[in-house]
Design goal:
This protein is mostly helical. The protein has one domain (about 5-220). The chain contains 10 helices and 3 strands, in the order αβααααααβααβα. The protein has helices at about 5-25, 45-55, 55-70, 80-90, 125, 135, 145-160, 170-180, 190-195, 215-220; strands at about 40-45, 165-170, 195. Strands 1-2-3 form a 3-stranded antiparallel beta sheet. The protein starts with a helix and ends with a helix.
């Protein structure tokens, strides 16, 4: 099992490979374009640790205050992880129905439509790359192959954090901040009520029509050094 420092090193390499893929796309996403920055972003505990490790103590305290306020509001709380979804689909069973609405609000970390942790942002933010401005269309326009690529990266990220948890950004961040602070006076019910255990990767969600095109990306992923 990888220790957290080696996990973070692998995560950085995953991000770099995906960044290279995104650089090859014609996308409309620009600085100050925050329409897709909603309170519904999901992430793993490893990604939360990456963000927290880049913050000073004052920034951590400020962040947990914002996140605690967000947790009082409606937000997307996933019932299954990406790898669990892949297993369910492979078995022929139906995944649970989950509701999500961007109208529930913006990401609680946003400040003047900019992200204060942009360089450290989780993959759930990185993979939202739209061909058209979301403000014009109301939704992100992402082609089918890019969605497949995104699913594969989500599966790999969950796999390297397979002993961790996933959930809504606010819930995962608060849980991880509490664990990092060692504050025994803070209620620690977040994990039990809103986070879900990650699963190892057993099958990739790649449709037949995308298997040849995605081979160079898979080769890059297999070449990652832990």
């Amino acid at each position: 099992m990888l220790n957290v420092y080696r996990q973070l090193a692998v995560l950085d390499q995953l991000y770099q490979i995906h960044d290279q893929f995104v650089d090859s796309l014609d996308i409309a996403c620009k600085k100050f374009c925050a329409d897709c920055c909603t309170c519904n972003v999901t992430m793993t505990t490893l990604e939360a640790y990456k963000i927290i490790s880049g913050l000073d103590l004052d920034s951590r305290k400020s962040m947990i205050g914002k996140l605690n306020e967000q947790m009082k509001k409606q937000r997307f709380v996933p019932e299954i992880t990406t790898n669990r979804l892949a297993d369910i689909c492979l078995s022929g069973d139906d995944p649970p129905e989950e509701s999500i609405d961007p109208a529930w609000g913006h990401c609680p970390l946003l400040s003047d439509d900019t992200c204060p942790v942009y360089d450290l942002r989780p993959f759930g933010c990185r993979c939202m790359v739209s061909k058209e401005r979301c403000a014009d269309t109301g939704v992100a326009e992402i082609d089918e192959f890019t969605i497949t690529v995104n699913h594969v990266f989500l599966q790999y990220i969950e796999h390297i954090d397979r002993n961790g948890f996933s959930g809504n950004l606010s819930d995962v961040m608060v849980h991880t901040l509490i664990n990092e602070s060692g504050d025994s006076n803070t209620p620690s019910t977040t994990r039990r009520t809103t986070l879900i255990q990650n699963s190892p990767l057993s099958t990739l969600m790649v449709p037949p029509e995308h298997r040849e095109k995605i081979e160079p990306i898979l080769a890059a992923l297999h070449a990652i050094k832990a």
